[in-house]
């Protein structure tokens, strides 16, 4: 089969590889679609020995598809033909973090599908049964963004929900593939007034359309609006999906006493936090991905029509173009590669009477 692989340090390309054979405790997945992520660009741009996991491996860690085959000891797996989403972190299931339901921080999770082991930019992928979440009525061609962008955003939003009582203010910095989910999740799961920031002017009305009360492309305007809406108190929660130095500084400027600043983006920023920079009893958190429970929750919300995603579809032969669009910032939502067909269209699917939904 054809697969898009990190074939060597600094070099990714399509290559011919054998179809994978699932181990007895694994299932074989026929891939419907794989979402692209900026983490992939980090993998492709890494210098020699710049990653914990050396090439070669097939890229793509946002994966959905259908069960094609089930290993002899793959207990608890769904049936052949069932549509599933994949939780792609290879957690051990035995360490203290896993036993506490925090598989995203597993001490043995040094790799996963698409980062160290073969991912979804191919016709087939393998996974363990405990990594599968049933999709039921959701279209697996457009569901892949739920498995990382949606799950990661949900994990961060869930962390701050206890602080978002009626009258609270929540800020989302960066309304791209992840931040767009966060705006919707805050709209659906909290009573907070949501305010958004993105440096791209076209994402200002986009954020409002997703549920933000106000959105800005200037950090100064954002900080002023947050102070006005909160009557000078500041934001009870700030979610930074950029992670650059400027975005983190803006997040701290917005935060309230006893609030939370959560940095999800991996923009390589750094800030020095002095006593006068962080409000009293304000948390500063850095989160990583999410858990299988988070992924299941996001899938259920999508099934209910409460969240949606914009998916720009590409064929596997167009994957280089898809990564170029991602790198340039031309995408509004998420790029999804369909391995078995050429797909040039943008797809935002809507279910009657229930609002936007990832449904085929």
CATH H-level superfamily of the largest domain = Medium-chain alcohol dehydrogenases, catalytic domain
Assign a percent range to the helix content. Answer: 10-25%
How many helices in DSSP terms?
A: 9
CATH topology of the largest domain: Quinone Oxidoreductase, Chain A, domain 1
Q: What is the CATH class of the largest domain? A: Alpha Beta
Class by helix and strand content?
A: alpha/beta
| Shape call | globular
Largest sheet, strands/sense/barrel: 8 strands, mixed
Termini, distance in Å? 26 Å
- Supply Rg: 20 Å
Mean pLDDT: 91
Number of strands: 21
Model regions low in confidence, pLDDT < 50 over at least 5 residues? 342-360
How much of the residues is beta strand, in percent?
Answer: 25-35%
- The H-and-E topology, N to C, reads as EEEHEEEHEEEEHEHEHEHEHEEHEHEEEE
């Amino acid at each position: 089969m054809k697969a898009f692989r990190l074939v060597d340090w600094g070099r990714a390309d399509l290559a011919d590889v054998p179809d994978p054979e699932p181990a007895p405790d694994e299932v074989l997945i026929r891939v419907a679609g794989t979402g692209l992520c900026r983490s992939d660009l980090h993998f492709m741009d890494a210098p020699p020995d710049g990653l914990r996991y050396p090439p070669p491996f097939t890229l793509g860690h946002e994966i959905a598809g259908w069960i094609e085959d089930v290993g002899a000891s793959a207990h608890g797996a769904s049936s052949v033909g069932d549509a599933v989403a994949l939780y792609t972190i290879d957690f051990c299931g035995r360490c203290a973090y896993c036993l506490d339901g925090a598989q995203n921080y597993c001490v043995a999770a040094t790799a996963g599908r698409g980062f160290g082991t073969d991912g979804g930019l191919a016709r087939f992928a393998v996974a363990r049964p405990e990594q599968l979440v049933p999709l039921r009525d959701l279209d697996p061609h457009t569901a892949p963004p739920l498995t990382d962008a949606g799950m990661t955003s949900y994990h961060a939003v869930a962390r701050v929900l206890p602080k978002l009582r009626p009258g609270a203010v929540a800020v989302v910095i960066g309304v791209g593939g992840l931040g767009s989910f966060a705006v919707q999740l805050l709209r659906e799961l909290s009573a907070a007034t949501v305010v958004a920031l993105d440096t791209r002017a076209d994402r200002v009305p986009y954020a409002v359309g997703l549920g933000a009360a106000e959105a800005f492309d200037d950090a100064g305007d954002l900080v002023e609006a947050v102070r006005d809406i909160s009557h000078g108190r500041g934001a009870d929660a700030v979610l930074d999906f950029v992670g650059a130095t400027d975005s983190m500084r803006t997040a701290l400027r917005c935060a309230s006493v006893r609030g939370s600043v959560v940095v999800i983006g991996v923009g390589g920023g750094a800030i020095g936090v002095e006593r006068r920079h962080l409000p009293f009893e304000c948390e500063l958190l850095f989160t990583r991905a999410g858990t299988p429970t988070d992924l299941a929750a996001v899938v259920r919300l999508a099934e209910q029509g409460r969240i949606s995603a914009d998916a720009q579809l590409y064929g596997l032969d167009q994957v280089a173009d898809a990564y170029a669009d991602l790198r340039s910032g031309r995408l509004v939502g998420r790029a999804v590669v369909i391995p078995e067909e050429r797909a040039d269209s943008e797809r935002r699917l809507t279910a009657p009477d229930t609002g936007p939904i990832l449904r085929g």
